[in-house]
Amino acid sequence: MDATLLLIILTSLFTPLLLHLLLRHHRRSTLPLPPGPRGYPILGALPLIGPAAHVSLANLAKRYGPIMYLKLGTRSVVVVSTSSAARSFLTTFDHQFANRPTATMKTKEAAYNGEDMVFSNYTPRWKLLRRLSTIHMLGNKAFTKWANVRRSEVMHMLHAMHESSKLGKPVLVPEMLICATTNIIGRVMLSQRVFDSVDEELGKFRDVLKELLTGGGIFNIGDFVPGIGWMDLQGVKAKLVKAHRKMDDMMKKMLALHKATMKEREGCPDFIDLVLASELRDDDGEKLSDVNIRALLSNMFSAGTDTSTIIVEWALAELIKNPAILKRLQSEMDAIIGQERILQEDDISKLPYLQAVCKEALRLHASTPLSIPHYSFESCEVEGYHIPADTRLLINIWAIGRDPDIWENPLEFIPERFLPGGNAVNIEPHGTDFEMIPFGAGRRICVGKQAGMVFVQYLLGVLVHGFNWQMPKGEEIDLKETPGLVIPKEVPIKAFVTPRLASKVYF
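-> structure tokens emitted (507 positions)
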């Protein structure tokens, strides 16, 4: 071969590679990575993270700082543990970190491969799902429209608890709450009550939710070392696939019944009717598939039931453990509402101590201790650190709510901190005050934050206004957590209730 021709061929082959390497070197930031543990070969820092990941990461942050870089297997992860650092990432770089790491076992096997609203990327389809949810269910106007449904199901719950009291039976709090909230969501979305009572079917549904929400929070080795993902070393995939199949079957049955009863709802459409009608008129070119609809239903049932009921149960546990706080809250409601009727949603704005109790529960026991992972496809520079491309971002909401630099006596349950004279009187949990972000912040803030607050305040208020509470003889309230994507109490509250209002209230 002619030497000149050979030189031309070799130059054409290697010049692009050389340019790529030179440009890559030129683009490399001179800033350091955030500090973090060195980790181990192959697994990186994974062995340093225990079952309660939020606690492990909070302890590591005490050593390495509020912005911490970890190499978990082959993945880059940044963990943020203070309000100021969270503000930097979720304001200035909010758009950049609005995506999700979709190549995870949780997303593929239990979140419809990212076709839902919680685990999908920041796409036009996600925006459509969020917009429809806001317009027809969770926005101010729509949420007010469904107030009668919430009141009806709360009265069902009160009646069932009153009957348990008459029979001298204890009440299993999370099951009562899940029954009420699931029926509220079922009626709003599908015009269907899901459960008639606390029974075996409800128990099965609760077990499915538990598998999805606790299993989904485990740091799955296969997500961080993809080459061994097929081995499912922790058994997480098998459990999530089984739980997801049960949930999806439930969604299919509900949608089939919904379709069969379409004529019965003429002139009175529910959420799914409105979503389907809106989709037909959508001008943005985005269309929802059957999978999108089932995924959205699953999101609403899981996020709308378990997360709200977890906070209510934690708040009730703290009240039973602190009888002086419980008595003050009951006295406030008796003074404003009396004992001839039960609390209504319109009363909440007149009950500052109830609001303070709920805020304190959200601060101390955020139901989602670590944010759903954010993800950036591009590199950036934050607070003097280089953040590489393809990095996952975790906000340690649990640690922020217990930061001693922000909160006085952070491990104590003190609702008064949110009242006039308290150091947190101006802090609200809506995503703009980063000292407490139980619903997240930025573009990916929980779409149901308003509904979540009303659910927590209304349900807790009704339970405390309507009944006195007593633990079974010899038992005390336990404040241990069950680790996962959400953190319910390890031991559910099972207590005896005594009606404290006029008998007519419960019927």
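The chain is about 50% helix and 5% strand.
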